[in-house]
């Protein structure tokens, strides 16, 4: 680690001779992580590099921009009265302040992380871009399958730009009383437009559900129109994030109201491994075990990775001597929605098939030694089993 850290520091020093906001952001993340791991000396040394790098560019632009950003609208406080649905008295939104928001960026592919940081930078420099007529983006739609970290991402963006978030779940605004849904939407936007906040319209697709009901045609039109007008009313006033699991259900006119649209993909193999590592903390598994867990839930979401990590944590206390394959067999049988059918069938069938599938998987490149330990057998009994299998195949 010490040797690698010297290389990392040299890399940072070189890169910081020409610092961009994205670079500064990544170095700040590295410092935070090192601090968390108790590596104070390393964190301090990078902080010093960062400070001298920033001096060279006369302070990071994002720091200067923050003052503009915070002069927009009245400030929300814990005492601010939140509008409610007149029929049920339920609040139309929930307000989250910086201290309630996640400090960790969701784990995504590096390209996706870069794109997200570029949006944050644009929002940080909103007023400067406006001054030169550069039409900065102030709204974005985040979409993708459930559990991929979309709501987490929206909250983290608010945390990064240091503005509280007004979170409204769209299905919470829907009322069975004619006209009340539109009135709720109007009141929600009036509230958000008055205060300095990021408006998060979560589970945006709820509006679309109404469309499936033939009795509701008139009401749907009215709701969609209200939403369109209100989205327009936020131009130049504040930032808006829409989140949806079913982007196909959204009205194209609503879709177009968002300056940028980001699709959050399911985790790749590498991202899944990182997610599992993160969620498994403080438990540290061998690389071969990490690879095996990733293989088992390939194609699942980040939320699924969290469930699996929790399962492994529990098993480490309740049945710590059990071979990993048996722990995962149970998981596969109890989580039919998280483990794909073909893999689950392998767990149900005999171990020989499972072993030979793992050995043949070029993507994961499991070593015989790793497989033996996953199955709790010695390497020689695994070799014997494999050669027996080969004999059978050759007959
Ligand atoms: N890529 C990711 N990085 C970090 N955490 C994730 C990721 N994907 C999912 N999660 C975690 O899974 C849970 C569900 O995420 P959430 O943001 O609510 O998903 P979505 O809004 O896409 O349905 C949260 O606890 C979240 O932190
Ligand atoms: Mg969500």
Give an overview of the whole structure:
- The chain has 395 residues and is an alpha/beta fold.
- The protein has 3 domains: 2-59, no CATH class; 68-263, P-loop containing nucleotide triphosphate hydrolases (Rossmann fold), CATH 3.40.50.300; 269-394, no CATH class.
- The protein has 20 helices and 6 strands.
- It has helices at residues 2-15, 21-36, 40-56, 61-69, 110-124, 126-131, 150-161, 170-173, 180-194, 206-209, 217-233, 252-257, 269-280, 287-296, 302-318, 324-334, 341-348, 351-360, 368-374, 379-394; strands at residues 94-96, 139-143, 165-169, 198-202, 239-244, 260-263.
- Strands 1-3-4-5-2-6 form a 6-stranded mixed β-sheet, sandwiched between helices.
- α1 (2-15) runs parallel beside α3, α13 packs across α14 and α13 crosses α15.
- It is globular, with a radius of gyration of 26 Å.
- The two termini are 51 Å apart.
- Mean pLDDT is 88; it is low at 56-64.
- Residues 106-108, 146-152, 275, 302-303, 306 line the site of adenosine-5'-diphosphate (ADP).
- Residues 136-268 form the AAA+ ATPase domain.
């Amino acid at each position: 680690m010490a040797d690698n850290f010297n290389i990392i520091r040299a890399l940072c020093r070189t890169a910081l001779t020409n610092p961009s906001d994205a670079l500064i952001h990544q170095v700040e993340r590295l410092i935070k992580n090192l601090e968390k791991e108790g590596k104070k000396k390393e964190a301090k040394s990078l902080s010093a590099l960062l400070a001298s790098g920033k001096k060279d560019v006369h302070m990071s632009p994002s720091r200067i921009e923050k003052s503009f950003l915070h002069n927009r609208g009245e400030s929300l406080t814990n005492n601010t009265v939140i509008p409610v649905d007149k029929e049920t008295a339920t609040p139309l939104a929930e307000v989250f302040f910086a201290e309630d928001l996640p400090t960790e960026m969701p784990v995504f592919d590096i390209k996706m992380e870069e794109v997200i940081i570029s949006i944050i930078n644009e929002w940080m420099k909103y007023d400067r871009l406006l001054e030169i007529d550069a039409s900065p983006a102030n709204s974005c739609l985040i979409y993708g399958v459930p559990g991929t970290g979309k709501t987490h991402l929206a909250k983290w963006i608010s945390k990064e730009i240091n503005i509280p978030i007004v979170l409204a779940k769209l299905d919470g605004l829907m009322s069975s009383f004619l006209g009340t849904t539109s009135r709720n939407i109007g009141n929600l936007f009036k509230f958000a437009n008055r205060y300095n906040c990021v408006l998060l319209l979560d589970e945006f697709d709820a509006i679309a559900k109404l469309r499936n009901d033939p009795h509701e045609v008139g009401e749907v039109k009215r709701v969609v129109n209200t939403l369109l007008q209100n989205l327009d009313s936020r131009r130049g006033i504040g930032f808006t994030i829409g989140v949806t699991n079913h982007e196909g259900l959204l009205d194209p006119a609503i879709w177009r109201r968002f300056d940028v649209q980001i699709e959050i993909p399911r985790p790749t193999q590498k991202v899944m491994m990182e997610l599992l590592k993160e969620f498994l903390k403080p438990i540290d598994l061998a690389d071969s075990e990490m690879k095996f867990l990733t293989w088992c839930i390939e194609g699942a979401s980040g939320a699924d990775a969290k469930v699996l990590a929790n399962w492994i944590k529990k098993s480490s206390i309740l049945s710590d001597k059990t071979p990993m394959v048996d722990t995962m067999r149970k998981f596969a049988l109890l989580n039919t929605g998280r483990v794909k059918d073909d893999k689950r069938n392998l767990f149900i069938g005999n171990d020989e098939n499972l072993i030979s599938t793992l050995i043949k998987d070029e993507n994961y490149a499991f070593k015989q030694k790793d497989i033996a330990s996953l199955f709790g057998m010695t390497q020689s009994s695994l070799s014997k089993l494999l050669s027996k299998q080969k004999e059978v195949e050759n007959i």
